[in-house]
Amino acid sequence: MSKRNSDILKKAARENGKKGGRPPGTKNPETLEREAVLKALRQKVMGVSDELFMAQMSLAKGYFYLFKIEKKLLIGPKGGKKYVPLPPKRVESLWEIEAYLCGLVDETANIHDNDPAATYYYIVTKDPQNAAIDSLQDRAYGRSTQAVEVSNPDGSLKTVIIQKSSDKK
Q1: Assigned domain for 118 exists
Q2: Using CA atoms, how far apart are residues 47 and 41, in angstroms rounded to an integer?
Q3: pLDDT single digits (tens) 129-158
Q4: Exposed end of the chain (fewer CB within 10 Å): N or C?
Q5: d(CA 131, CA 120)
Q6: Alpha-carbon distance 29 to 167, whole Å?
Q7: Beta carbons within 8 Å of 132's beta carbon, 6+ residues apart
Q8: How far apart are CA 88 and CA 68, in angstroms?
Q9: pTM of the model
Q10: Residues linked to residue 74 through DSSP beta bridges, in sequence order
Q11: How many CA atoms within 13 Å lie on the side-chain side of 97?
Q12: What span, in angstroms and rounded, lies between the C-alpha atoms of 100 and 89?
């Protein structure tokens, strides 16, 4: 940088200092840091957006889990045998879930034959969540028009219609 340019910059800095601080259009260091963190966070979220969408879709549709209770053989000090149920375990292997749903796992025969070592299966369902359904529809079709009642200081109610900007004519 030439001596002339350096002198011009110093003079401009002195003048800006007299005007009360930072030049218009510049940002505080804290603001720049916050924007950098927000940008990094958005990049991370966008990187897993498919997974987040599928998780929200499963909440919107509802889902089920297949659990099983297996039993463990305990042999006492005198040789007595006893089957103790283990804690329920969620079935995650696809072949075992398919076998259960297709009826290839015959648990009823073991239960009716009083087999103490029988494995017991059960299904837990989760109902769809309306909030997830609404969120997905809002993203796909845009947010629907909503009416909000606002009370005035005199106690009367006023209905305000809120529309998204693309719906206004």
Answers
A1: yes
A2: 10
A3: 888 888 888 888 887 777 777 777 777 766
A4: C
A5: 34
A6: 39
A7: 56, 57, 59, 60
A8: 6
A9: 0.45
A10: 82
A11: 11
A12: 15
User: In this structure, what token pair is assigned to residue 155?
Assistant: 């106690």
User: Is residue 89, in this structure, part of any structural domain at all?
Assistant: yes
Match 């290839």 to its residue by tokens.
104
Number of domains the chain contains: 1
φ, ψ for residue 2 (rounded to 5)? -75, 165
DSSP structure string for the chain: --HHHHHHHHHHHHHHHHHTSSPTT---HHHHHHHHHHHHHHHHHHHTHHHHHHHHHHHHH-EEEEEEE-EEEEE-TTS-EEEEEPPPEE---HHHHHHHHTT-S-HHHHHHTT-TT--EEEEEEEPPPHHHHHHHHHHHH-PPPEEEEEE-TTS-EEEEEE--GGG--
Residue 51 is which amino acid? E
Q: Please give the residue range of the domain that contains residue 87.
A: 64-126
| Residue 87 forms part of a structural domain | yes
Tokens standing for residue 27: 């940002």
